[in-house]
Specification:
The complex is a heterodimer. Chain A is built from no helices and twelve strands. Chain A is mostly beta strands. The termini of chain A are far apart. Chain B is mainly β. Chain B is globular. Classes of the chains: A mainly beta, B mainly beta. At the A-B interface, strand 5, strand 6 and strand 11 of A face strand 4, strand 5 and strand 10 of B.
Amino acid sequence: AQSVAQPEDQVNVAEGNPLTVKCTYSVSGNPYLFWYVQYPNRGLQFLLKYITGDNLVKGSYGFEAEFNKSQTSFHLKKPSALVSDSALYFCAVRDRDSGYSTLTFGKGTMLLVSP
Amino acid sequence: EAQVTQNPRYLITVTGKKLTVTCSQNMNHEYMSWYRQDPGLGLRQIYYSMNVEVTDKGDVPEGYKVSRKEKRNFPLILESPSPNQTSLYFCASGRGGGQGVTGELFFGEGSRLTVL
């Protein structure tokens, strides 16, 4: 089975401080990993993905994520948070070696950036 | 403009009254999927389609039907809606035919359904 966990329902950070939103995954084979963001009353928007290669992936709006195979993690990071980054963030995984054809999403982490 | 369009965006209906939520994409994507989003439960997949005439159940298919007669359209049908189907529904599309999703998914703006 493929699964993903986002251990924090909410992350609070002050504007200008670095932020981290955590994600761990479980797959039998090798993963495709994704981060999506959802702003209020909107659909999800793609932020970044890890397919293969460099473990540090850069994405939209200054976000990046680091793939760590030994810890089965794919944490989302940003060096300096903005109030406009406040949104709901979803991690997703697909086990590309075990016959899974679709993504499994985590439950989401609400990021609140205070001025 | 590349987009996934869902209709209606908001709907209030009563138990047992059949309804259809339409979804259309203009990116020639093979893969399409329906999700429901509920507080504390995240995003759960209802049905998905790898290509025309190919559909499969997701994690929560009970009470729903889908069809994929054309590549661009993937309607979600609730034959006899019940209150536990009150939710926010999202349609998504992406590349990746027979071997599965290989890239990013594009999501519609959502359809908020209330079943009384």
